[in-house]
Amino acid sequence: MTSEVIETYTKDSILAEINDQTLLGELRKIAKEIKKDHDLAMELWDSQNFKARLLAILIMDKNQLTAETLDEMVESIAIHSYDEKNNLMDWLMSNQLTKNKKGTMIIESWQNSPMSLQRRTFWNYQGRLRWRGKNFSENTGELLSVIEESIMDEEPEVQWAMNFTAGWIGIYDEQYRERCSQLGEKTGLYKGEMVSKGCTPNYLPEFIEMEVGKLEAKNK
Predict the structure, then answer these.
(1) What is the pLDDT of residues 1-56, one digit of tens each?
(2) Residue 73 burial (CB count, 10 A)
(3) Between vectors from CA 82 to CA 79 and to CA 84, what angle results, nearest 5°?
(4) Are the C-beta atoms of residues 163 and 189 closer than 8 Å to each other?
(5) DSSP 8-state assignment for residue 1
(6) Hey, CA dihedral for 20, 26, 32, 33, is it positive or negative?
(7) Cα first-last separation, the chain
């Protein structure tokens, strides 16, 4: 890092520059200039400002993110709105935790965490692995059984991630497809939910049918 960057980007200067209207692309541009600065990242995180925390995630050093540090960070996210909490966790997962084996091992340890945001991240990660077409048949049946048994007892943010995982299991693993659709029929989650034009509904029977249709059309 050059002395110019050090002088330009401090916690106070960044907080003065960003606001609620700052776009994610602008945060990425700032992060590209700073590159990696874990101390500054933690200062920004401690500000409790939503956009500053998104930027902080981009410039953190993933090698300094221990399980204990992440527990503290996740606990501190409770001050944010529902959407902001989920956005911060998704941003943390995609920009830091999935970048090395240590991070993915931490995610995998969160299945039964007392913190719902950590449980959501575990299930979101499982869904994203399958969304990318990766085959994890050795634990798919077990995960699906857990979803079937506990999804209706979970917090809304965890329900969404479990539903997401069940959807992609049903799409890519034909032996579980009917079972996943039946899960959606049984729970009724997201049935009748309005979605924007071009978006796929979260209701499992519709979600699976539409995405399987896309795959079949692509593979013709």
Answers:
(1) 444 444 478 999 999 999 999 999 999 999 999 999 999 999 999 999 999 999 99
(2) 20
(3) 75
(4) yes
(5) -
(6) negative
(7) 50
| Residue 145 burial (CB count, 10 A) | 11
Report how far residue 59's alpha carbon sits from residue 36's, in angstroms, rounded to the nearest whole number: 5
Structure tokens at 55: 């930027």
Measure the CA–CA gap between 96 and 75, rounded to whole angstroms.
Answer: 18
184 near 193, Cβ under 8 Å?
A: no
Contacts of 210 (CB under 8 A, 6+ apart): 200, 201
Looking at this protein, which amino acid is placed at residue 13?
A: S
For residues 58 and 26, the answer to whether their CB atoms sit within 8 Å is: no
* pTM exceeds cut of 0.85: yes
Q: Is the dihedral of CA 116, 119, 121, 126 positive or negative?
A: negative
Residue for token digits 């002088």? 7
C-alpha distance from residue 94 to each of 19, 28, 54, 191 (Å): 23, 14, 12, 28
Using CA atoms, how far residue 90 sits from 13, 95, 107, 122, 204, in Å, is 26, 8, 12, 11, 21
Q: Return the closest-CA partner of residue 45 out of 15, 22, 17.
A: 15
